[in-house]
Amino acid sequence: MLKPTFFARRLIFAVLVFWVCLAGCLYGAGGAVPEEGFPTSLESYADAQVQGVGAKLLGRIQADPFNLVATLIFFAAIVHTFLAAKFRAVSHRFEVECERMTAGGVAVNLRQLDRKKFLSVVFHFLGEVEAVFGIWLIPLGLAILVMKGPGVASHYLSGVNFTEPIFVVVIMAIASSRPILQFAEGSLKKFAYFGGGSPAAWWFAILTIGPLLGSFITEPAAMTICALLLAGKFYKLNPSMNLRYVTLGLLFVHISIGGTLTHFAAPPVVMVAGKWNWDTPFMLLHFGWKAAACIVISNTLAFLVFRRELRSMKAAVSTGRDKISAVPVPIILCHLLFIGFVVYTAHYAAMVVVTFMFFLAFVAATERNQDAISLRGPVLVGFFLAGLVIHGGCQQWWIEPVLTSLNPTHLLLGSTVLTAFNDNAAITYLASLVPGFSDQAKLAVVAGAVAGGGLTVIANAPNPAGQSILQSYFGENGVSALKLFLAALIPTAICVAVFLLLL
C-alpha cells in the first residue's frame, strides 16, 4: 500500500483543520443568539455623552473586547494585501527550485520535492489578493467561536448581505463578453479618432470616457471594460513600468469618482441615496461635473508628464480579425439589455442570479458570436468582496465615532483616509446610520469616500476586478500595493482639492 506523499499528508491535515474549525463555528447554529446580538449594536454602548474619540473607543473595547480582536484581524488582513507580492515571489522561487530538481535527469528526493511543491502552492495561495480576506475569515471565525460561543458565527453570516458580491460577479462576467467589448470599443473609437486613433489617443479616451460610463452601466462593468481595453490597446505595447502604474492608479481613482453622475451606479452613493433623498440631478449638481473635471485634469497632467513615451508608442498591426469576428447588432443589443436588467435588479440577488442563468443560455445559443465566459476572475473578485463584507461588519464600532467627531473638511479628509483601509461603500453606509448629519457633512463623507477609492485594492469594490485583469502586465509578482498607492496619490489629491474647494 502506497503511503501518502508529504504534499498529500499536509493537504489532508489542512482540510481536516478547516472542517474542524468550520464545524466549531457552525455548532449550535440552531441555538439562541445572545440577547445583545452580534456584532454589538452601536446603540447598546450608550456612550453618547462620552467626550473624545479615544475615550469612546476605549469604553467600547472594555464593553466588548472582541471589538479589538476583530479589528486587529482586519488590519492584519490589510497588511497581508500589501505583502501579497512578496508571497508570490516566494512561491515562484519554490517553483523554480522544483523545476531545477526535475530537469537534471538524476534521482530526485521525492520527499523534498513534495515539500517544495506544497510550499509553492501555499505561498501562491497566500499571494492571491482576492483570497486574502477569505483566508483571514478563519482566525475571525475562531475568535468568534472562542469569545462568543458556538453558533454565533453562523447566525452572523446568515445576516450578512452578499448582494453586492453576487452583483459584481454577474456584471463582470457579462461586461467581459465579446459583444459588450465590441460595443465599448466601437464607442470609444470615435473619441480616440479625434486624436488620430494612436495608442495615446486610446489611452486618453479609455481613461476619460470609460470611467464616466460607470454612472450608467455601473462601476464594476466600467472597470471590466476599461481594463480589458487598456490591456489590448495599451499594456500589450509594453510601456514603462512607471507609466503602467500611473495608468492603473488613474483607472482606479477615475472609476471611483466616475460613477457619481447618477444615484444608482456607484456603491458608496447607492448606500445613502435613498435615505438622504439624493437623485440624479442632485448628483450631477454636487458631484458629477466635479468628477468629470477631476478626470480631465488628472489625465491631462499625466499625459504631459509622459507625452514623449505615449507619442512614441506604435499601435499593433491589425490582422483583419476584427471584421471576421464582428458580432451582429441584435446580439449586442441583447447583451446590453441583460446588463440593463441586472443593473435594474441589482438589489435583488435572486433576480440577478436568474438573469445570469438566462444570459448563459443565450451565450450558448449564439456560440459562434461569443467567446467562452470565464468565471474564474469574477468569482475570485466576488470571494474577495464577500470576505471584505464579513470583516467590515465587525468594524462599525470604531468607524462610527471617528466619522462623527469630524467637521465637514476634516470629515472629507478622514473618509478619504479610512476608505484606503475599508470599502468606500462601508464608509458611506455607516455614515448613513449617524443621526443628525448636516448636509455639508453628508456631501463631505461621500466626496471623501469616492476620492479615496483608488488608493488601494480594497478601497472600492470594482478595484479587484481591474487588478485581476491587468496584474499579468506587472511582472511575476503582480501589482505592488505600495506602488499602486503612490501612483494613485496625485489623482486622489486632485479630487480632494476640487471637492474641498467646491464643497
Write the layout of secondary structure elements.
Blueprint: H1 6-26, H2 53-63, H3 66-103, H4 110-126, H5 132-135, H6 137-148, H7 152-159, H8 163-175, H9 178-192, H10 199-217, H11 219-233, H12 241-258, H13 267-276, H14 280-305, H15 307-312, H16 321-324, H17 329-344, H18 349-365, H19 376-392, H20 396-404, H21 408-419, H22 424-432, H23 439-451, H24 463-470, H25 481-501
Helix pairs in contact: 1-4, 1-6, 2-20, 3-4, 3-6, 8-11, 8-17, 8-18, 8-19, 9-10, 9-17, 10-11, 10-12, 10-14, 11-12, 11-24, 12-14, 12-25, 13-22, 14-25, 17-18, 19-24, 20-21, 21-23, 22-23, 23-25
How would you characterize this protein structure?
By secondary structure, the protein is mostly helical. The protein has two domains: 88 residues, no CATH class; 332 residues, no CATH class. It contains 25 helices and no strands. Helix 1 packs parallel to helix 4. The longest helix is centred in the N-terminal third of the chain and has 38 residues. It starts with 5 loop residues before the first helix and ends with a helix.
